[in-house]
What we know:
heterodimer; A: 227 residues; alpha/beta; six-stranded mixed sheet; four-stranded antiparallel sheet; 7 helices; B: alpha+beta; 2 domains; elongated
Amino acid sequence: MIVMKNVYKKYPNGVVAANGLNVVIDPGEFVYVVGPSGAGKSTFIKMMYREEAPTSGDVIVNGINLATLRNKRIPYLRRQIGVVFQDFKLLPKLNVYENVAFALEVIEESPAEIRKKVNDVLGLVGLTQKARMFPNELSGGEEQRVSIARSIVNLPKVVIADEPTGNLDPETSWEIMRIFEQINTRGTTIVMATHNREIVNTIKHRVIAIEGGLITRDEYGGEYYEG
Amino acid sequence: MKARTFGRHIRESLKSIRRNSWMTFASVSAVTVTLLLVGVFIVIMMNLNQLAQNIENDVEIKVVADPAADEVAIKELVEKVRSTDGIIEVVFSSRDEELDKMIKSFGDELSLYKQSNPLGDALYVKAKDPQQAATIAKEIDTYDYTYEVIYGEEKVEKLFNVLNTSRNVGLALILALLFTAMFLISNTIRITIVARRTEIEIMKLVGATNNFVRIPFLLEGIWLGVLGAIAPMLIISISYFKLYEYWEPKLQGELFQLLNTTPFIYQLNGLILFMGIFIGVWGSFMSVRKFLKV
Lengths: 227, 294
């Protein structure tokens, strides 16, 4: 569960990216976050995995208040959250398998556990056959699938995706959405910032629109529109 | 930390050392030059210190009693000198013995004085702490029945001045070198950090602890320091053993003695290695703190 209470965020350069956000996202929900560039979408999302801390107010994720979370504890929060980016952020020198396994190695999982979890998740995203290939040998969609696999390999309760289809052609985007849907049906909460009107309007979910650091609209099965 | 994790950190740190071979070479050379100079400096300073100590220990205070004083007065003086603070040894030498010594050094002509000895009885006093000799000498000079108090003050003080100055100049130079070496290491580590920023970003994103991110860089610093310490340790050890082998027999009975190879060289090697590691860790730490926002 994600809760934001009166969240206010002002950057050192004076920009106010969150001007009193209040929101509750229940476990297992699928939420689109929409809004024009510079509206505060990214800040909204970054505060959920404590990439940014709120200037004031509370951000509670899985029962942990991120506003008061000590820096030392951030890694343990991140282990409960998967994050997917527009630019995939894969390591070019590691193959598909290693890129996914990396997420478990750095949190010191046992090799047996790593092998099992990585193979499971590669099956889920349909990349078992390409496990030994390197990122530069993959298509954009495949790269994004690797990145999704990495984000869910540790079985997080929440997956946060920042424009995951931003770099992909429409057909591939649908493929990626299908995987997110699948993850969501397993009970994982998904929060996705997106600019993709077609997707939001076709696969109906809750839509939170942000503009000027405020939530201007929050409706279940909402449409994508600006303003 | 699990052994497997530690193994991973070691592999990662060695990988970077190979990857940035030029920066590795530059920082290792800087550490090598620094430690070589530090080592040579320590060898020289320690040996000079030893010389100073030998000279110091050789310094004694000579107290000449008033030739006019009678036996009771002399006894009183001896007692008083004996009970002075900070003294370890007092050797009494009678006026006749003193004359014999003089005759021995200056020749038989002085035998004439045997008829009427103009010398006073003498006391040879050794201070517990040779640096205190001057103070003790001054104090004894205030006692009754002393005629003269002599000690090799200037000889010692000059030597100490020279030693202190050279030590300070040497230390300043060494500090400057240490900083250069640290700076180079810190630069090397910074390059590693920059080269791996995506990796670090992902590590932090998936929940690697701060130490997990930091340790490979600290290890890399340690390797650079250790690699830089190897050549100085070898060069200084071999040279000193050779030097000792050659000079030691020729210096028999001299005030200047080379320090024994054992344990000196082993302690020195330990110190050089420790300094290498210290430079490495510190250089790396500076970059990790500055560039690794964890």
